[in-house]
Design goal:
Length: 209
């Protein structure tokens, strides 16, 4: 019989770390904000599920194959992620240039947002480092005690993360209604943020040993 308070401990830990991961500024969050400002919250909300697509292979790679991220893989992730984030920044910049108050998103923008969000997360070193150094050891410890505790940690983590990301999308979806000038300005800020994250990742990739 599994003591419920131990299971609850892992669940609460998962909620805390999931919330922290969702609100931490990064390329993934900047991309979600940019998509919300450009396409609206309805076509962006699905992209909050991107970690469910991308994190499975990441967790498997980090926890089952690698005990720590080797330097060549970390450098590749920084460089590849930096190039991709700069590509997203260029797309956001073009959307800012061509902004029209009455423009509507293409019908398949929701699926494109989900796939691009998943790719952004996969090419970012953040999830690999996070699962290698922070949440991975907690998951392994809980799973070693009983798989139910490990699953409880994962449920709390992804439940809190997805709900928080959806809240972020809804928040900026509301800001989108403040007027075309505000919306265009926020879209420009998201493009600058993506460019900054992309340039920083390229710098880390070039300078890392």
């Amino acid at each position: 019989m599994i003591p419920q308070h131990r299971l609850a401990n892992y669940w609460i830990l998962g909620i805390g770390f999931g919330f922290a991961a969702a609100v931490q500024p990064g390329p993934f969050q900047a991309y979600l904000i940019g998509q919300t400002l450009k396409n609206g919250w309805r076509r962006t909300l699905l992209a909050a599920l991107a970690p469910l697509l991308s994190d499975g292979p990441i967790i498997t790679l980090v926890l089952l194959v690698l005990n720590q991220i080797p330097a060549p893989l970390r450098r590749f992730l920084y460089l590849a992620g930096g190039v991709f984030v700069l590509y997203l920044a260029w797309g956001a910049f073009r959307a800012w240039q061509r902004f029209k108050p009455d423009a509507s998103a293409s019908p398949d923008s929701a699926s494109h947002s989900l796939l691009r969000a998943a790719l952004t997360n996969t090419l970012s070193p953040g999830p690999y480092i996070y699962w290698s150094l922070v949440t991975g050891p907690i998951l392994l410890r809980g799973w070693a005690e009983t798989p139910t505790r490990g699953l409880g940690f994962l449920a709390g983590f992804y439940g809190a993360m997805i709900i928080t990301l959806m809240g972020l999308i809804l928040l900026f979806g509301t800001a989108r209604r403040l007027g075309p000038q505000v919306n265009r300005a926020l879209l420009g800020v998201s493009a600058l943020a993506l460019a900054g994250f992309g340039g920083y990742q390229l710098w880390l990739g070039v300078s890392s040993q």
